[in-house]
Every structure is written in structure tokens, then in C-alpha cells.
Design brief:
The complex is a heterodimer of chains A (about 475) and B (about 450). By secondary structure, chain A is mainly alpha-helical. Chain A is built from 18 helices and four strands. A two-stranded antiparallel ribbon of chain A has the order 1-4. In chain A, strands 2-3 form a two-stranded antiparallel ribbon. The longest helix of chain A has about 45 residues. The radius of gyration of chain A is 30 Å and the shape is elongated. In chain A, about 45% of the residues are buried. The mean pLDDT of chain A is about 90. Chain B has a two-stranded antiparallel ribbon with strand order 1-2. In chain B, α8 runs antiparallel to α9. The chains are: A mainly alpha (about 475), B mainly alpha (about 450). Chains A and B meet through α2, α4, α9, α10 and α12 of A and α2, α4, α5, α10 and α11 of B.
Chain lengths: ~475, ~450
């Protein structure tokens, strides 16, 4: 088997056209890694400048009432992720800026895609674009005639007469082509590792290994299937067109159709409906800014009783802060309910798409690729959750200061100094560890392994000896 | 006559190729599916606009009841006084819509990257958080919807490839190419006649599916939309035909021709646009809207801290006609209404901030447009988006409309405050009519 693989490679290397295409393609591949990395770093600088600017504004607050500061709020910019230089996932279509303030949970806005006209339907020239769309085609081109040409030239009969087993020949042809794909993905991962050597962590390494593995499995499926067609069909052109047909259906048709269908099976509310429902639920709670609000009056009675006093002026704390925090906490429960529902629907959509991987391994590849590169919707949702958790701590800190900081109820003129505002922690994004989310991709990995087994079985049992010779 | 014979004879080739027929059927199925996706979005947006309009009407009717019952506003919000222009205008709900063009049936374009309705208030801005796109799965948005333009832009060249790939190559492999040339006289005319046959077949199919799309929305109500779409689809088809013609002309065999055609297709549809997008991102990184944030917070605070005299003067600079109003003549009264008018100056500051952002985006788009000559895919893509009014510029126009609405609302408010108007039911209805006038 090894000898056949070596021969295949010798044949490839001797082909000048292949060598030229190969050198050109590897150059583009390496360039895409470098450009992706450079773009991410540039965006990271922009992000850092913006983040520092907003933080500087916050710590420079000279004198401000803590609750006014909650309205002043702050902004969080979606941090860049070096892994996204390999696969950008959803990053270009999701927003980049989110306002954090009291009473309201804002949506993330200002996506990159909304800032310019359409350029590419498949995103930037990232390695994922080349590895997902172009490399499989290269593998098809390398494999479609691998057996049929040997058949037509009679060389196959000769090899069998010399003692080679038909299965060994088929598997060797598959492995020879597959190794080419593995070599390309190795180049990508290696170049990425070298460029980002100083930023490599265990998590990044694990993610890179998983990324590498999922592409390797997919390339085996493509290589094996093409060799299978090459052995099965008498005609080289038929083998090529069959695989091109499969490539078109897998990469262009099905992902789009499945995604659209998943959205129809598990519909999300429209933004307006969603906001109305949130507003409706919010109105059932406490209005922190309305002194006549019935729930606020009930809270007042409760607090007065708790402190054993008759009026708000006798309280040792500022009731306004307490009321604002009660308002916040009610709002948080409303957010949890509605956003939780959206997250659930998104999860159902994702699962439906993942099941689609059983009929289309490309979907599983896409899911694992952006998932392992921390740029899929799951990671986006994790980021948004971290922002919301930060918002709650941020607003509570300000409301607590209003309540227990020494001011009296109704004293809105009371202000805190810069030391306090400096003490309020800034948002620090904690990248999601792959160990926390890997269970979400098991279905994709199973689909890829299942497909690999099916292809292996096809190669082993799907071709009769007389079809080969 | 010989060319005509070749052209007509190609029909026999075609009907004997089940692979080609299946490809055409799949293309038609994809086109119809894409057209329905566009029509669904058209319907969804239209219905949503209608639903919001009903909500607005209900909200405004509720406010009107306060005038009927001689109340100043809702009981639980005693500070609201609807007889003042400020509270009447704040309470008058109004939305600005980007009504979907019937052309959206052909191209969803950037329609899913932006919101299409916006509540307009005196504190609004075209870059508010509620301008975010509809709630949708970002993975679906990223992979794009299979609309008709996707079918045309990506699958039409592939279908053409499937129809043309074995022209000349097959004859060459079977060794009777010289015979064909002798019989037909000219190699070019022979290839052209055969190619033309498939182009004609595709034009007929495209005409059919474009017509089918026109029946799903009111395409014929928009001047020339149908013909513009068909003409641009035809031009795109011819563009690829020219490429493939030369590959066939100079190609040697079927496999080599197929590989070259696929190579060109990948280069034009994938590599070049992706490389351009990558380059643009490096050249002009995503704007994180810091200027806008500054205007929204710090500049607003600065304006609030200005003295009465400065604010008064600045308002007169913005609206010179204010001098003719009651407060314009009696400046002493300004102190009482200052906080209600200050929004006009904040709006101005916000406009200056958004102008910078828009300039940034404009230069980004100019940069992209400069690549059209070697990036035809993006050119055609945006051409289709323009036809369906889902191009970036259409959304920019929508943002401009929003800004005009905000300006109009603030201007009316400031003038009515300075004229010390008392708002009654008739005036309130006038407000709602003006603010809901969304043609």
C-alpha cells in the first residue's frame, strides 16, 4: 500500500502543471493565514483604542450621582479573537458595539457587514473559505481519474497481476489524495502556530487539533467518494461530473436550504414583537422612576417595616437606590425569560442544522470549523451572556452605592467622586474554553465519523473486482 | 445556413443528455425556491409594517382619549402634560419604514442586515440600537439566503458550464473534430452556433422564472423592474458565455475544459471577491462608532451645561425664523422652556458625528467600486441589489429619511414651544398625521 501511495505522489510531483498549481495555491493559503492574522491584529488595535477611550471617559467622571452614572453607562466592544483569523464564522454579520446602561438591555449593533456594500457572499479570504470550498475541489480533481485512467490504460490489470489487491489499490489511491488535503491543512495550522507562537495556549492548541481533525475527516470523505466514483464508473467524465454535482449540492444548495428551513421550523419572534412582549412584561414589574408605582409603594412599606421607621427620611439608607435595584432585578428576570426563549430557539435551530450533517457532511464541517475557532453563534451568545452578567454587576454596584453610600432618599443631587468610578471594574471578556462547549459539537463530529465509515465501507465493499478491471 | 443547421441539431444532443436536463430541472427548482424565499421576506416585512402601523394607531388613539376626558396624560405619569408641545410630540408615535420593494423577490440583498422600521422620537438617531436587523440566526445570515440572485450569480455559470463542457472536447476525444470542421466550414461558427443554442435555452428559462417571480409580488407596479432584472440577468449570462466560449475554443479536451471553466468560476465568484473583502477590512477596519458614542454622551453633557444665553443663541442660529416667535421676541421666557428645546442642539451634534461615520462608509464603498473592473461578481451582485432596493445606498437613503423625520419633529416642537402653543385634540391629530406620513 505504501508503495502505491509513494508512486501516486511521485506521479503528482512529476506533473509540472500540478506543481505550479500547488505552489500557487499553497502561497494563497499561507497568504490568507497571514492576511487574516494581520486583519485581526489591526481590528484588535482599533478595539483597544475604543475600549481605552470609553474606559477613560468612565474613570474621568469627576462628580456624578451613581444612578445618573448608570444612565450614562458604558460601551462594550466585541473583542477580536485570533482564532477567527482561520475561520471568521458569524463575526462579520453580528454587531460590535453594545451599550450597557440601567433599566435597558440593549442589542449589539454596528456589524461590519452593515457598514459597506456587499462584496463576497462567502466572506473574506480566510483559510476556512479555501479549506471548505476550494481544497475539496482540488481533491476531486486529483482523484476523479485516479482509478479510471489506470483502467483505461490497462495498468490496473497489470498491478493486480503483479499481486496487488484491488482493495489496497483503491485505499492507497484514496489515502494518497487525502494526504494531499491533510498536508494543506497542516500548512495552515503550522503557519498559524508559527505566527501566533506567543499567544498559543492549551485551549488554542486543543481547538487547532480539533479543527485539523474535522477537516481531515471531511477530506477523507471527499477523497474516498471521488475514488469510489472513479472506480465505479467506466467513464472519467462521469466520475468528475458526479463529484462536482455532489460538491454543488453539499456546499451551495443544502447549507442554505437547511438553515432557512431550520428558521422556519423554529421561528424567532420579530424584533418589534419581541420588544413589545418585553415591554409588556416589564410593565408588570416595578417602575423605579415612578414614585406612584404600586409595587414601589409596597416595597417602601416593606423596607420601612424592616428598619422599624415611619418615613423614608428616617431610613439610614437611600430608598431610591433600593427601588432602582428592585426595578433592575425584575427587569433581569424579564430578560432571562425572553432572551432565554430566544437562546432556546437558536439552540433548536442549531440542532436541526446539525442533524442535517447526517445527509451533508459539509454542514458538520462548517459547524465544527467555526465552533472550534470560537466564531459561531454559540460563542457569540456566550459573549452576550457575559456582557449581560457584567451589566448586572455594574448596575448593582451603582445602585448599591446610591443606597448605602451615605445619601438620603430623594437626594438626587448627591454625587460620588472619581475614586468610586475608578473602583468600578471594567468588562473583561473571558474566552469560552473549548471544554465548556465541546458537547455542543458531538453531533457534528459523529456525523463526520459516520460519513468516513460509510465511505470506507463503500470503498471496501461497494466496488466489485470486475468494476475495477 | 450551416450554422443554423448546427444550432438546430444541438437540440438532439441536448435531449440525449439526461445529465443536462436534470441540471436544468434542478436550476429551475432552485430558482423557484429562491423566488419564494424573496416573496416570503416581502410578505413578512409588509405584514410587520402593517402590524406596527396598527400598534401606532392604537397608541395614538389612547393618547387622544386623554383629550376627550380633559386629562393631561396617563394617571400613573402625572408629570406628562399633553397640552404642551413637548409632551404632545413625545407622545405622538411615529415610525419610519423602509417598505420592501417588489424586487426583493429577486434579490434579498442586504435586506437582512438592517432594520426596516424605526420608531421616531425627538431623541432618535439613525444609528440607534433599535436600527439593528431583525432577530435572526447569525449563522443563517452569514451563510446567506438562497434567493434568486444567489441562483443566478452562482448556479447560472455552473449550469452553463454543465451545458457547454463537452462542446468540442467530446468530438476531439472521439477523433472526428477535423471532420466536423470540414463539414461546417468554420470552427468559430460551429462553436458559436452550439453555444448560442444553450444560451437561448437559458434565456427562455430565465425569462420564465423571472416572469414567475413577477407573479409573486407586484413587480409590474414598479417601472421597468421586470425588464431591468431580465436584462441584467441576460448580461450576466452573456458575460459567462464569453469566458466559456474562449475556453472551449482554445481547449483541448472535455476534462481540461471543465477544469478551466471551474477554475475561472472559482476565481471570479469566490477568490477575487473574498480577497477584496479581506483587503477592505485591512484597509478600513470596522468602525466602532466612537465618534457617535462621544456625541451621545459627552457632547450631550456639554450642551446641557451651556448657559441659557448660549443655548438661546445657538437655537436662533439653527432656526433663524425663531426670532418671529413669541419667545424670540421675549428672550426672558426662554429659561422656562430651555430643557425642552435643548434636543435640537443635541440632534445637531449627533448629525455631525454620524456624518463622519457615513463619510467613512462612503470611502469604503468607493474603494469597493474601484475594484469592479477586475471584480465583476461584486459588480453584478450590487447591481441586482440596487434593482431590489436592498443595496447599501438604499439603506443609507432610509437612514437619511429617518434623520429628516427627526429633524422635522424637533423643528415643529421647537417652533411650537417658542410660540407657546397649547395643544388640543385637533393639533394632536395634526401632529400624528404629519409624523405618520410615511410615503
Amino acid at each position: 500500500m505504501l508503495q502505491i501511495i509513494k508512486n501516486e505522489w511521485r506521479y503528482l510531483v512529476r506533473n509540472h502543471l500540478f506543481l505550479c498549481v500547488n505552489v500557487g495555491f499553497i502561497s494563497i493559503l499561507i497568504l490568507s493565514v497571514c492576511l487574516g492574522n494581520y486583519q485581526t491584529q489591526k481590528q484588535e488595535n482599533t478595539h483597544k483604542v475604543a475600549k481605552d477611550h470609553v474606559r477613560q471617559q468612565w474613570v474621568s467622571i469627576d462628580q456624578m450621582n451613581p444612578h445618573s452614572a448608570a444612565h450614562y453607562g458604558t460601551y462594550i466592544f466585541k473583542p477580536t479573537n485570533l482564532l477567527s483569523s482561520l475561520d471568521e464564522g458569524v463575526n462579520s454579520v453580528t454587531g460590535n458595539v453594545i451599550r450597557v446602561e440601567g433599566h435597558v438591555q440593549n442589542e449589539i449593533t454596528h456589524s461590519e457587514a452593515s457598514q459597506m456594500q456587499s462584496v463576497s457572499r462567502f466572506g473574506k479570504l480566510k483559510p476556512s473559505l479555501l479549506l471548505q470550498y476550494i481544497v475539496p475541489l482540488l481533491l476531486v480533481f486529483l482523484a476523479f481519474s485516479s482509478v479510471s485512467n489506470e483502467k483505461q490504460s490497462g495498468r490496473l490489470k497489470l498491478m493486480i497481476l503483479q499481486g496487488a489487491k484491488p482493495l489496497d489499490i483503491i485505499l492507497s489511491k484514496t489515502l494518497a489524495v487525502w494526504l494531499y488535503g491533510v498536508l494543506l491543512i497542516s500548512f495552515v495550522v503550522l503557519v498559524y502556530g508559527v505566527i501566533n507562537f506567543q499567544s498559543l495556549t492549551t485551549d488554542v492548541l486543543v481547538r487547532a487539533v480539533l479543527f485539523f481533525s474535522s477537516y481531515s475527516l471531511y477530506y477523507f470523505i471527499i477523497s474516498g467518494l471521488t475514488v469510489f466514483f472513479s472506480a465505479r464508473w467506466q467513464n472519467t467524465t462521469l466520475a468528475l461530473t458526479s463529484m462536482l454535482g455532489i460538491w454543488i449540492v453539499w456546499t451551495l444548495f443544502l447549507p442554505n436550504i437547511l438553515m432557512t428551513s431550520a428558521e422556519k421550523w423554529h421561528p424567532l419572534p420579530s424584533r418589534s414583537e419581541f420588544q413589545s412582549a418585553m415591554k409588556e412584561d416589564r410593565s408588570k414589574g416595578l417602575d423605579g422612576h415612578n414614585p406612584r408605582d404600586q409595587r414601589a409603594l409596597a416595597l417602601k412599606e416593606k423596607v420601612l417595616k424592616e428598619y422599624g421607621v415611619d418615613s423614608l427620611s428616617q431610613l439610614p439608607i437611600n430608598f431610591d437606590g433600593l427601588k432602582m435595584q428592585a426595578d433592575e432585578e425584575y427587569g433581569n428576570s424579564v430578560w432571562d425569560k425572553h432572551f432565554g426563549n430566544n437562546r432556546e430557539v437558536l439552540g433548536q435551530q442549531k440542532q436541526s442544522v446539525q442533524i442535517g450533517g447526517l445527509i451533508n457532511p459539509f454542514i458538520s464541517l462548517q459547524n465544527t470549523s467555526m465552533g472550534f475557532m470560537a466564531s459561531d453563534n454559540l460563542h457569540q451568545q456566550e459573549f452576550l451572556l457575559q456582557v449581560e452578567n457584567y451589566r448586572r454587576v455594574f448596575i448593582k454596584t451603582l445602585n448599591d452605592k446610591q443606597t448605602y453610600g451615605g445619601s438620603k432618599t430623594g437626594n438626587w443631587g448627591w454625587k460620588e467622586g472619581t475614586d468610586f468610578f475608578k473602583s468600578v471594574a471594567d468588562f473583561e471578556y473571558k474566552p469560552t474554553q473549548v471544554s465548556e462547549v465541546i458537547s455542543n459539537y458531538i453531533l457534528d463530529v459523529i456525523a463526520l465519523i459516520m460519513w468516513s465509515i460509510v465511505v470506507f465501507l463503500l470503498l471496501t465493499f461497494g466496488i466489485k473486482k470486475n468494476q475495477i478491471v | 445556413m450551416r450554422s443554423l443547421g448546427v444550432f438546430l441539431y444541438e437540440w438532439k444532443h441536448f435531449v440525449r443528455s439526461p445529465f443536462k436536463i436534470v441540471a436544468i430541472i434542478l436550476f429551475m427548482a432552485a430558482s423557484i425556491y429562491g423566488l419564494h424565499n424573496g416573496a416570503d421576506l416581502y410578505e413578512k416585512q409588509t405584514n410587520e409594517i402593517q402590524r406596527i402601523n396598527k400598534e401606532v394607531a392604537t397608541a395614538n388613539n389612547t393618547t387622544l382619549t386623554y383629550f376627550d376626558t380633559n386629562e393631561k396624560g396617563p394617571k400613573n405619569r402625572p408629570w406628562v402634560d399633553l397640552t404642551t408641545p413637548y409632551w404632545a410630540i413625545v407622545s405622538a408615535s411615529g415610525y419610519q419604514f423602509k417598505k420592501p420593494s417588489p424586487g426583493i423577490v429577486y434579490t434579498i440583498g442586504q435586506g437582512e442586515q438592517y432594520g426596516f422600521y424605526k420608531a421616531i422620537g425627538i431623541s432618535s438617531s439613525p444609528y440607534d440600537a433599535d436600527m439593528a436587523k431583525e432577530i435572526a440566526n447569525p449563522e443563517r445570515i452569514e451563510s446567506g439566503t438562497l434567493d434568486f440572485s444567489f441562483v443566478v450569480l452562482f448556479l447560472l455559470p455552473l449550469l452553463l458550464l454543465i451545458l457547454l463542457y463537452n462542446i468540442k472536447g467530446q468530438e476531439s476525444e472521439q477523433g472526428f473534430l477535423p471532420l466536423v470542421f470540414v463539414q461546417t466550414g468554420s470552427k468559430n461558427w460551429w462553436i458559436l452556433a452550439r453555444t448560442s443554442f444553450y444560451v437561448l435555452v437559458l434565456l427562455l428559462i430565465l425569462f420564465g422564472v423571472v416572469t414567475y417571480g413577477a407573479m409573486l409580488t407586484n413587480v409590474f407596479e414598479v417601472d421597468n423592474l421586470f425588464w431591468n432584472v431580465f436584462i441584467w440577468v441576460s448580461i450576466y449570462l452573456l458575460f459567462w458565455t464569453v469566458f466559456y466560449f474562449f475556453i472551449i475554443k482554445y481547449g483541448k479536451n472535455t476534462v481540461s475544459n471543465t477544469l478551466q471553466m471551474i477554475g475561472v468560476w472559482l476565481l471570479v465568484s469566490f477568490i477575487v471577491p473574498a480577497a477584496i473583502q479581506q483587503w477592505i477590512s485591512i484597509e478600513k477596519p470596522t468602525n466602532l462608532m466612537v465618534d457617535f458614542i462621544d456625541a451621545k454622551r459627552d457632547r450631550t453633557d456639554e450642551i446641557y451645561n451651556l448657559s441659557n444665553e448660549v443655548i438661546y443663541q445657538q437655537l436662533l442660529d439653527v432656526y433663524p425664523n425663531l426670532k418671529q416667535t413669541k419667545i424670540g421676541k421675549e428672550a426672558i421666557l426662554f429659561r422656562k422652556v430651555k430643557r425642552y428645546c435643548i434636543r435640537a442642539l443635541i440632534n445637531l451634534a449627533m448629525k455631525n458625528a454620524t456624518a463622519k461615520i457615513e463619510e467613512d462608509n462612503r470611502s469604503k464603498n468607493e474603494l469597493i467600486s474601484k475594484t469592479y473592473w477586475f471584480n465583476p461578481f461584486t459588480y453584478f451582485h450590487n447591481r441586482f441589489n440596487r434593482l431590489s432596493k436592498t443595496h447599501y445606498d438604499d439603506y443609507q437613503a432610509y437612514r437619511d429619511d429617518i434623520q429628516n423625520r427627526i429633524d422635522q419633529r424637533i423643528k415643529i416642537m421647537v417652533f411650537d414651544i417658542w410660540n407657546d402653543l397649547t395643544i388640543d385634540k385637533t393639533k394632536y391629530i395634526e401632529y400624528t398625521t404629519i409624523f405618520s406620513n410615511n410615503e
